[in-house]
Amino acid sequence: MPSFIYVTDVFCPWCFGFAPVMERLVGVYAFPVRVLCGNLVDEPEQTSAMGTPRLRAFFQRLSDTTGRTLGRGFFQLLEEEGSVLMDSSRSALLMAALKKLAPGHALAQMEAFQDAFYKDGRDVLSLDVQADVAARWGVQAGDLEKSLASDAVRDKARREMDEAEDILGDFVVYPTLFVKTDDGELHAVARGYAPFEDVEAKIQDALASGSSLNAVSAEACGLDGTCCAR
After folding, report:
1. CA distances from 113 to 5, 12, 68, 100, 154 (A)
2. d(CA 122, CA 116)
3. Residue 166 CB neighbour total at 10 angstroms
4. Which of 18, 97, 107, 149 is deepest in the core (most CB within 10 A)?
5. How far apart are the C-alpha atoms of 183 and 123, rounded to whole Å?
6. Helix (H) or strand (E) holding 208
7. What is the pTM of this model?
8. Average pLDDT for residues 100-124, to the nearest whole number?
9. Cβ atoms of 8 and 168 closer than 8 Å
């Protein structure tokens, strides 16, 4: 059976916008989904850095494009007094821990933390918040804390981030969705945000003829700092 490989990031706004598309695709195709965490925020940064008028305008455009409204809580994070830290390596560690403690739910877990950040304005790097969200899958706070401190889980998080970077190649943007066909080949079907119909057409092309998307959508987050400028 073909499968999806989804490269995403807790702090990626276009990934937050892409979540309903991804859920619909999974519902239609019922392919297994492997989630790999990217490294969008490769240097820790405060959310208040995103509080400029230009980026506030971007967030409105994101909502208009994707139909997903960012919550009032998120906009409070853009103020100095409400600012929290963003760090993709720590969110990747969280996802690696959850894959160990509550396997088989990686897509739902990723989307839950994106919602917690972009809808509810929660500090998703806080252990209390992480434990609260993870409890939906029966994860105990003590077990989560222990797993986050595990060298094995840290190694797994780093390996998966390296793998994500490797398969993205020259197009390091988030979100990126691949179809892995029965012959083991990877075919990019979304590089950046795209509506369901566009991605579905690319999936059909990949399954029928092995074609792969090599152009980057304008609606994408990248490590070159253009995430919110497009």
Report:
1. 19, 11, 15, 17, 19
2. 6
3. 9
4. 18
5. 41
6. helix 196-209
7. 0.92
8. 98
9. no
